[in-house]
Amino acid sequence: MTCEEYLSNMKPGYIVDGGSEEHLVMHELSQRALKITMELNNKYHTKEEIIQLMSELTGQKIDESFGMFPPFYTDCGRNIHIGKNVFINAGCKFQDQGGIYIEDGVLIGHNAVLATINHMEDPEKRAGMIFQPIHIEKKVWLGANVTVLPGVTIGEGSVIAAGAVVTKDVPANMIAAGVPAKVIRKVKKDTEKGEI
Which residues form the signal peptide (predicted)? Predict the structure, then answer.
C-alpha cells in the first residue's frame, strides 16, 4: 500500500489493525512528519519559513495569514487542514490521522492536544486504531492545555477554557470548561460583562 492510498482511506470510522500493512504506512508517514517537525522546532525560522514548512508537512498550501510559535508536534501531518488567520501557540500536539479541520480565525493556546485516534476497547484487538475527525469551526479559541478528543466538533465562536478536556461537541458561541468539558454559558459580546 502506498502513502497516497493510505491517505485516501483516512475517513471517519476507519480502522487500522496493529501490525498490518496500513500500520507500517502510518509509521512511514510518522517518520516524514518527525523529520519536518525536527526542522521546524530546532532552529529559528521566519514566519515565511514556518508557513513553507507547514505547507510541506500538510501537503497543502498554508495561507500567508497563518501564524505559529514552535515547537509543534504531529505524528502524521498530512490530514491537518488549516484555514486563514489561524494562530497556533507553542507546544501543541496534533494526532491528525483521523483529520483535523481548523477553520478561519481560530486561536489555539499553548500545549493544546488534538487527538483523532482511539485504540480498540477489546483487549484482544487493543493495538487496533479507529479514526474520528476533529472540527474546529471559525473564530474558536482553545485555551492553554486544552485536549480535544476524537470525533468532536467545536462550534463557531466558542471558547474552550484552559485545561478543559473536550469529549463531546460544543455548540456555537458557548464557553466550555472542566474535565470533562461542560458548557457553562454563552459567549458575551464586548458590550456585555462576564467572567469565565
Answer: none
